[in-house]
Amino acid sequence: MNSKNLTHLERLEAEAIHIMREVVAECQNPVMLYSVGKDSAVMLHLARKAFYPSPPPFPLLHVDTTWKFKAMYEMRDRMAKTSGMELLVHRNPEAEARGINPFDHGPLHTDMWKTEGLKQALTKWNFDAAFGGARRDEEKSRAKERILSFRTASHGWDPKNQRPELWNLYNARKNKGESIRVFPISNWTELDIWQYIHLNDIPIVPLYFADERPTVVRDGMLLMVDDERFPLQPDEVPVMRSVRFRTLGCYPLTGAVESTAKTLPEVIQETLLTTTSERQGRAIDKDSGGAGMEVKKQQGYF
Amino acid sequence: MGDQDVIYKVDALVAQDIDAYLDQHQHKTMLRFITCGSVDDGKSTLIGRLLYDSKMIFEDQLAALESDSKKSGTQGQEIDFALLVDGLAAEREQGITIDVAYRFFATEKRKFIVADTPGHEQYTRNMVTGASTADLAVILIDARKGVLTQTRRHSYLAHLIGIRHMVLAVNKMDLVGYDQSVYDAIVADYATFARSIGIESFVPMPISGFKGDNITGPSANTPWYTGPSLIQHLETVEVDAVADQTKPFRLPIQWVNRPNLDFRGFSGLIASGTVRPGDAVRVLPSGKTSTVSRIVTMDGDLDLAVAGQSITLCLTDEVDCSRGDVLAPADAPPQVADQFETTIVWMADEALTPGRAYWLKLGTQMVSATVQAPKYAVNVNTMEHLACKTLELNAIGVAEVITDRPVVFEPYTANHTLGGFILIDKITNATVAAGMLHFSLRRAQNVHWQALDISREAHAALKNQRPAVLWFTGLSGSGKSTIANLVEKKLHALGRHTFLLDGDNIRHGLNKDLGFTEADRIENIRRVGEVAKLMADAGLIVLSAFISPFRAEREMVRALLPEGEFLEVFIDTPLEVAESRDVKGLYKKARSGELKNFTGIDSPYEAPENPEIHVSTVKETPEDAAERIVDYVLSRAK
Questions:
Q1: Which of A25, A94, B526, B595 lies 20 to 30 Å from B330 when distance is taken between CA atoms?
Q2: Are residues A120 and A234 in the same domain?
Q3: Contact A158/A8 with Cβ under 8 angstroms?
Q4: Whose CA is closest to B516, among B428, B586, B426, B607?
Q5: pLDDT in tens, B411-443
Q6: Which ipTM did the prediction report?
Q7: Interchain contact A246–B (C-beta under 8 A)
Q8: Considering only CB atoms, which chain B residues are within 8 Å of A21?
């Protein structure tokens, strides 16, 4: 046989690898944002494939908020070890000093730990390109962002002044101090991610699978009481429920769904049959009305 | 519609047998297409419908959509699918799509990526961008309006960018009572136009994005139509990646993988053709040959790789091969040239400057290139050829492109990867144009570089010096010539071989045909740069004293020379000081309007950002400055 029909996953994989190699070839100091979620797991796997047998020629960066699930920290340290890549962890010192947390500070929590923390980390290590696992199917403003998204020296994004991206030609040129955010899995959907994890047997945080976990219901969200820092209201008692997470972030901001899906095919089955979108479990998109994410991105959020 | 169940019976299978579903999903192929139409042709509504029908809209999104529809929708109380698709805040306010947005949906057979491209006139560049990755274009027509100027423009652009499959979707059939005669007249009208611009075939269909007619299956409202529904057609057309496999093997090298001394792999995305271990290959442009030994992946070696795959190849020999080179069959290599006829789509607010150097990126090759004055521009509404001197934002023209070194290429019609390029502004780094190579110009094919036996190193060694071009730049009357003369005298006294190129002297001879317009100034500097380069090749330390007001031109000369041999010397004199000196009385003439395009008065001076040497003439005497410059030149390692 002298030809073969590539499946959509094979083409998406080839596209992501091509993008990663272009950026490594044309940028001075790239880094991969690693948030420990399933999209990060796929990104890391793609990076290892892209540069095999070499290890990926860039470090992993975790912009930490100190409020991630315990299971995420365990996973993060394990994956850094097995991939042979350097793991950099940055926590915004100002947020740490002021004790910024999701319970008392609302949107300021995301702004200081994540948006400011990311800018600080990119500046501190002089990274001129940062790979991220955002997908265009997640959110409306992301559907229009380029694969290589150019940021000013102050990390601002101007949606009206994006570089046109033609064919698979990416323009990674920039002046000193400017940087680019790179989204190699822009064209993947949530289902593509799950299917790829399934086919490639990629390790993911156990929180994606259903288990009995201590939870409370607050503001219509099912929250997991992951550690003793969770301030319970007088009438709140954590209840053991069989739950899993569709998306992972800071545990006090991440809603769980009741589920019995304990295997990947079962999780995928639930995902396909579900009737709510993935990001609904996240409080961040609801902060500032319809254009929430677009405003955050202009301010420097990934 | 009963047929909808046939295409979207996903849920049932998912619920009953997830493993069977996953197996099926795993074998889907992928098609990318664009939708184009005018502002009110219903593009966003059609895409919203496709997402809705394939269950890509979730309840929470639907709830948000319903509330948005009531707030700012244009469909009364009904759901306005367009709002789902129009993402950015800015365009919500305007009510039109302003950018390329990508959307995703899947049927049982295929995953689809849709580029939603704008119909608004000023955004031609976005449509070209969206079309560049598409296998197919859906041209939408409002059945009430027929073929419009915009329809012609979108069809022309889709054809220009090489889309092989065209669908003519005559939309809003519900608003003309599903009248066949209306449909037939529009199709006949379009066919005449399509033939006239070289579109060989297209598939017409009567639809309603709003009502769902002929989207997933045949509509009862159009019994007279026997062709495929939109989805049926999208599911069965051949994708470009498959067609590309039958072409000769082409692998643009992106990155050399060298983890240790025992492994050297060449990584890239196969642009066309197929490759197997044992294949004889040639490295372009060097022409060296070798044989493929392995195709390496993390999941094990492959015995076949095809167009569209990202791979890493190993060769049996230690041949020179690096980023920008192209691997091809030894007996069917692509061409190599440095002058081309091209079509260019200009995408920046600042118009094309003919003769200015831009970066040209083609595949993985990045070279310095200049665009000649366009032969003509194309009026995208009438397809007429217009005389023009430059290309403005959204203009399309045919022009010659000259690159500073040979490029491995194929005509765009034969290979989009080796024929499509972008131009990048050297100062702002913005992507300013997209282009398509048609053919190389004969000049380039017949003029070969004369291989010289005495190399530039040999010339320099005999003179016992490292060549350099000291490029003095600054306002008229800033002191360039004075300081350059002092520097040359000092170097000469130290036994160095030098030559001074002075602005006025050159303009009396070599460049006496040039005036002072922006284009002439660029050509002036280009010629001086080439002369300086030849003299540096001869081993000389060249001093050039020209105003050279534009950064891009100075960077063009820098790019001509080996790293470290171009030394930019900024003679920094404030305008009022230079004007008060006015040695030649030129400022006086410029101020009175007698002299046009005078730098600093009515023509800009772009100061160097990082000059090798910065001389402030208000703080330093010419003598001291010259001494410092001589020290700098001589302290460089040989």
A1: A25
A2: no
A3: no
A4: B586
A5: 999 999 999 999 999 888 999 999 999 999 865
A6: 0.89
A7: no
A8: 254-255, 267-268, 310
